[in-house]
Fold this sequence. Notes:
This protein is α+β, with helices and mostly antiparallel strands. It has three domains: 7-52, Uridine Diphospho-n-acetylenolpyruvylglucosamine Reductase, domain 2 (2-Layer Sandwich), CATH 3.30.43; 61-173, 2-Layer Sandwich (Uridine Diphospho-n-acetylenolpyruvylglucosamine Reductase, domain 3), CATH 3.30.465; 179-288, CO dehydrogenase flavoprotein, C-terminal domain (Enolase-like, domain 1, 2-Layer Sandwich), CATH 3.30.390.50. It is built from twelve helices and 14 strands. The protein has helices spanning 14-24, 37-42, 78-82, 85-90, 92-98, 104-109, 112-118, 124-131, 149-152, 228-232, 241-249, 265-289, and strands spanning 7-9, 28-31, 50-53, 63-66, 69-73, 135-140, 143-148, 153-155, 158-159, 166-173, 179-186, 196-204, 210-218, 225-226. Strand 2 (28-31), helix 2 (37-42) and strand 3 form a beta-alpha-beta unit. Flavin-adenine dinucleotide (FAD) binds next to strand 2, helix 2, helix 7, helix 8 and strand 10.
Amino acid sequence: xxxxxxxxxxxxxxxxxxxxxxxxxxxxxxxxxxxxxxxxxxxxxxxxxxxxxxxxxxxxxxxxxxxxxxxxxxxxxxxxxxxxxxxxxxxxxxxxxxxxxxxxxxxxxxxxxxxxxxxxxxxxxxxxxxxxxxxxxxxxxxxxxxxxxxxxxxxxxxxxxxxxxxxxxxxxxxxxxxxxxxxxxxxxxxxxxxxxxxxxxxxxxxxxxxxxxxxxxxxxxxxxxxxxxxxxxxxxxxxxxxxxxxxxxxxxxxxxxxxxxxxxxxxxxxxxxxxxxxxxxxxxxxxxxxxxx
Length: 293
Ligand SMILES: Cc1cc2nc3c(=O)[nH]c(=O)nc-3n(C[C@H](O)[C@H](O)[C@H](O)COP(=O)(O)OP(=O)(O)OC[C@H]3O[C@@H](n4cnc5c(N)ncnc54)[C@H](O)[C@@H]3O)c2cc1C
């Protein structure tokens, strides 16, 4: 199908884009990589009255190291993150996660800001943001505000962004020595949306016991699901396969998978237990390989 008719504008600056959004109103949409918006328009699931094309806004495409964070512009393509030496050095988890998103053609166009604003519970970027407890910056003609990951996604395809706000920047905390991280997912074919995925960070104290742990699932509920029950029991323990196997049994209480065309909720629960065990074990290995000085 073809999309319904719409107006098109290509602003030259963020200020101009924000002014256009105010002028066109709630039914106008920002166009970033178009990898979700354009298919939705072609199916007429979405019928924006106007598209405000962000692709000319080079000021929104950047990756900077800033203290203990990476600052990434909303228009940064997945492929820029995937191939960035800075990200590989400062936050290898981000490279590991992004490689799981779709195919290279989609990663060449799709943007971090577009993925987060789209808020698909099966997407990888919201899980990365949640795992790291990152934040995003939104701008509107009214001003600018930072939003914590925990407050950003409200439900499937719904964020806390106001209609006049644009996502402009993403801040991802880097991981200090003694913290290991890992991401894995299961999909039917490489590049497909995941049936379920899991990310973990695990922090070891100087005595080698677990000081902190975080485990977050994708496609296990209406937003990224943080597995608090499973990780609480890890604190103060020495990492071991048995410990992670026991903790993984507790994830059933942390998630609410809704099932997909190819996976029943029961199967997704099974995947969550298996992936929890694997990512926690890998994160622990990586933490042990980089001990606290
Ligand atoms: C075949 C295929 C496979 C895919 N597989 C995966 C996958 O495995 N994992 C995955 O995560 N995704 C997958 N995707 C989706 C892809 O990641 C999209 O790129 C992403 O969801 C949207 O980013 P975008 O830059 O393309 O945004 P767009 O499609 O341009 O926009 C998406 C939405 O975000 C809004 N938006 C965009 N930028 C901003 C901004 N700066 N501020 C406010 N709102 C904004 C738009 O108005 C729109 O509502 C797949 C897509 C395709 C076509």
